Amino acid sequence: MSVSVSCPRCGGPVRGPDLMHTESRCLVCGPVPPLHVPEHIGPEIVSSVVERISAGGATTPIWCPWPLPPGWTLTGVAWAGDDRTGVRATVVACAGPEPLGGGPADVVFVAEEPGVGLGTRFAGLSGPDPGPQLTEALRDPGPRHPEHVATAKVRAGGHPTPLWLVNSSTDRSAYAGEARGMWLHAIAWPASAGHLLAEQVVLHDLTEWTPPELVYGAPSPYLHGKA
Predict the structure, then answer these.
(1) 176, β-bridge pairs
(2) In tens digits, what is the pLDDT along the chain, a chain of 227 residues?
(3) Of 13, 15, 64, 159, which is most buried by a Cβ count within 10 Å?
């Protein structure tokens, strides 16, 4: 399996451990869990990533919409981590027709531990996590604070999971929330494709079961540097 390796926060090159350092590191961001992106996508690639997570004892989910929306395909899967830290983040990319305009659209779903910075990178934000605004919404989402009402709702692993719209680059829409004790990010291109999350999107963890009916498409450009 051919894999490209980069920094999860900035997309730059990553140096592996050496005699002076026990961790992988980016020259710009410092120590990071390196992002591994397979060059292709297919059932054998998904199985390989699942096996890597299981072998390392990690519990990081691989959130994939299932069933896929009509006309959509799975276009990529990646993970962040190394042999020392284990898998600390995963990302799934999908593509299909935009819900409103019918043009092409892409969505990525990121599950990550705090501090990895992969979700904010795809959102076009600085910093490793969504920030204090989302933290406040997670702490008190009740009716006393209408500004904290979730703007999207999905089901992740069988549980209703609210997501909040976060500031992002204007060419995309980005949502973030929490599932299984980790950040859950959903980023859509173009921005109007975020309407997909207004529907009842069900996220299934591929580490528990990979549907044999999954349809695979061309590799996502957003996992290979476009973001």
Answers:
(1) 164, 185
(2) 799 999 999 999 999 877 777 889 999 999 999 999 999 999 999 999 999 998 888 899 999 999 999 999 999 999 999 888 899 999 999 999 998 877 999 999 999 999 999 999 999 988 888 876 576 666 655 554 444 456 888 999 999 999 998 888 899 999 999 999 999 999 999 999 999 998 889 999 999 999 999 999 999 999 987 77
(3) 64
Task: For the beta carbon of residue 63, count every other beta carbon within 10 angstroms.
Answer: 29
**What single-letter amino acid sits at 199?**
E
Predicted model pTM: 0.92
Question: Hey, which residues does 95 pair with through a beta bridge?
Answer: 73, 106
- Provide φ and ψ at 29, rounded to 5°: -95, -10
